[in-house]
């Protein structure tokens, strides 16, 4: 959707009005609004209008989806009863199928050359995978020690830290004008080794908080991630270019699926989130930012090129929050273990977009500029 600058200005004004009305109605003791959570509608309207306004601004339109997520989360917090069941059907049952569809979409965007790059750029791939799977789980474990969360919330933080790279990392890397080929390869490799690495770290670091069945988690990740991604990879190999509409619709389905997953988790865990919300948000931001900083510094220590350092920073900091949510559901603890994933998703989109734009505006060393353009062109 394209928004003109005039329409964007009007939307900004309306969003500010909505926010002011929300603040006024929240502070005022209006019985009918309190009875029906009417102020919640104003907050949702504020985020929706702001998201649409961002579509009319070249620099801010990348944040539009994230603001939409805030609208969805607001709806889940104020009206959780509408996002837990539809009749006798539990909406949480949609989480795994949605993730499988999203993972299939990811597979259709991969090709065998993404795996062949391991041979052509082994240092970057090995460094990126090691940094991701060492930094994020260990930082998560440290955070649980600092904040002293309830056991299942702590396990959720370690779970999101033990997941593979996030689906958004390739987009962020592209925006940052970093090494897109390396980014796609790291996402592919980290995803395919996740069935063993994620359960290993969960057993090692989170076993003290919740009971972990290693082989059950291996199978859960295999059916949620590996089988759909492999199916997408095969589909792309044999039918590449024959279903162009699929390339256009899959990003929309993925964004919608992620939004619905977050809403369902937030609704299920609303009471727990109200109890630990501010502290959990602080912990998730610390976790996410540590991934960027430690990933970048690790790559610099290994004397890697600047664009590769930027790529690894993004790949380390962004996690597959959807997988974390699905595994929390498989553990039967969606409303507690799944909360960290629900919070991590919008946080990483905001910080990841901001970091990507900052990298984009910070010129690469002259000798790397041409290489970076070629990587983006041919990836």
From TrEMBL:
Membrane topology per record: Multi-pass membrane protein
InterPro entries in alphabetical order: BilAc:Na_symport/Acr3, Bilac:Na_transpt, Na+/solute_symporter_sf
Source superkingdom: Bacteria
Gene3D superfamilies: 1.20.1530.20
Alphabetic keyword roster: Membrane, Transmembrane, Transmembrane helix
Keyword Transmembrane helix attributed: yes
Location within or outside the cell: Membrane
Membrane spanning residue stretches: 12-30, 36-54, 63-82, 94-112, 124-147, 153-173, 180-202, 214-237, 249-268, 280-299
Pfam family, one: SBF
Entry keyword Amino-acid biosynthesis: no
Main location: membrane
Protein name: Bile acid:sodium symporter family protein
Originating species: Chryseosolibacter indicus
